Amino acid sequence: QVQLVESGGGSVQAGGSLRLSCAASRFTYNLYCMAWFRQAPGKQREGVGVVDNGGSTTYGDSVKGRFAISQDNAKKTLYLQMNSLKPEDTAIYYCALKIPCYSRSWDPSLYNYWGQGTQVTVSS
After folding, report:
1. Is the confidence at residue 27, as pLDDT, over 80?
2. Whole-angstrom Cα distance, residue 117 to residue 11?
3. What is the pLDDT of residue 29?
4. How high does pLDDT run on average in the chain?
5. CA torsion, points 30, 36, 39, 45, in degrees to nearest 10?
């Protein structure tokens, strides 16, 4: 059973940066997509960024130019570098895994595995 464990959340002032990590264990698939979603209180889960096994990425409109996804295939770890953070970025951030993956998607229901989430709080 694949497990995803996020880390790196915390509190930061507006304009600051954070880097989230998502470590995947028991993961041996070659055709996959990994994504970051977030959910703020009272709001629907929102796609932040997704990367496929080829390294191609797609970002949500609200984070383009500020957030960047990267992955360390050897460590089976996904990262989310968040810069120029805004109070509206405050949410629980989740990493998710879609297996198999033929196209990057924002539909949470298509993702097979989820991490437990990590809180990001941005104060003004």
Report:
1. no
2. 15
3. 79
4. 94
5. -50
